[in-house]
Amino acid sequence: MKLRLERPIVFFDLETTGTSVTHDRIVEISIIKVYPDGSETVHTRRVNPGMHIPEEATAIHHITDQDVADQPTFDIIAPKLADFITGCDIAGFNSTRFDVPLLDQEFHRAGIDFDFSGVRFIDVQNIFHKKEQRTLVAAYRFYCDRTLDEAHSASADTRATYEVLLAQIDRYPDIGSDVKTLSEFSAMNKAVDFVGRLIYDDNGREVINFGKYKGRLAEEVLTVEPSYYDWIMRSDFASSTQKAFTAVMDRVKAARNTSSIPEAAEGSANA
Fold first, then answer.
1. 20 to 30 A from 59, CA-CA: which of 24, 39, 106, 184?
2. Contact 48, 72 (CB under 8 A)
3. CB atoms within 10 A of CB 204
């Protein structure tokens, strides 16, 4: 069964300086852009992270400071990268929890407010975990009956992710083959931001998913405790989380301003 596309989809993988979405940086990015007619465009390039690549990260992806010393920093490649993926859906392996939020953070630092709002995401790892509970190397062996050479190189991981998804479509007819159905199936929860600090409840309302207010409606919390929003904006949260809380806070302010208008009008009439 083929992947049914209404518009292009990009499969991508990042190699980074570490596992922190907010602190770490990209050192290599690989993208396979697949078009509705099945044709592909492939790009892989290394990136100077502007910081030391820790030895424990190098031990995984084998990229050293010397390897990226003459490479451009992310802010240099960001405009062309944003153009390349605009209008595309996005797929990856563990991408919704790591690669996408880290990419969003890099765009934010580069001064690019990339609009992910219309993007449908497919996380191949989530499909795998729901069906088989494995890692990418095991998934590639399980679905494709081949050994993944050069695991943790961005280009090899990206190609493997694409091939695993095609094999999953063949193996599990119930997950569908169109992007909308695959995106819905691969979502682990209805996250508002990329890292799931806010999630939607069954009524489409934003619910806080961490800390002392976990399980509370974000709008209610920000209404009674506006300082909580200030703390979110001052603290080390991902930019997508801060954007999501800002959207809720804007509604709270708008509701507050609307409710105060009749009072002001009544006061003027009495005067």
1. 106
2. yes
3. 7
Average pLDDT over residues 130-158: 85
Question: Is position 138 within any domain?
Answer: yes
pLDDT digits 0-9 by tens, 96-111: 989 999 999 999 999 9
pLDDT band at 116 (very low <50, low <70, confident <90, very high): very high
User: Is the same domain home to 98 and 121?
Assistant: yes
- Contact in structure between 105 and 73 (CB atoms under 8 Å): no
Kindly give the pairing relationship between strand 9-16 and strand 89-92.
Answer: parallel
Q: Do residue 180 and residue 203 come from a single domain?
A: no
At residue 220, does pLDDT exceed 50?
yes
Assess whether 177 and 203 both reside in one domain. Answer: no
Contact 165, 95 (CB under 8 A): no
- DSSP of 92-141: ESSIIIIIHHHHHHHHHHTT-----TT--EEEHHHHHHHHT---HHHHHH
Question: Shortest CA distance to 71 belongs to which of 92, 45, 108, 94?
Answer: 45
Say if 104 falls within a structural domain.
yes
Mean pLDDT of the chain: 91
Alpha-carbon radius of gyration of the chain = 21
Same domain, residue pair 207 and 145: no
* Domain boundary pick from 133, 165, 186: 186
pTM, entire model: 0.70
Q: How many domains does the chain have?
A: 2
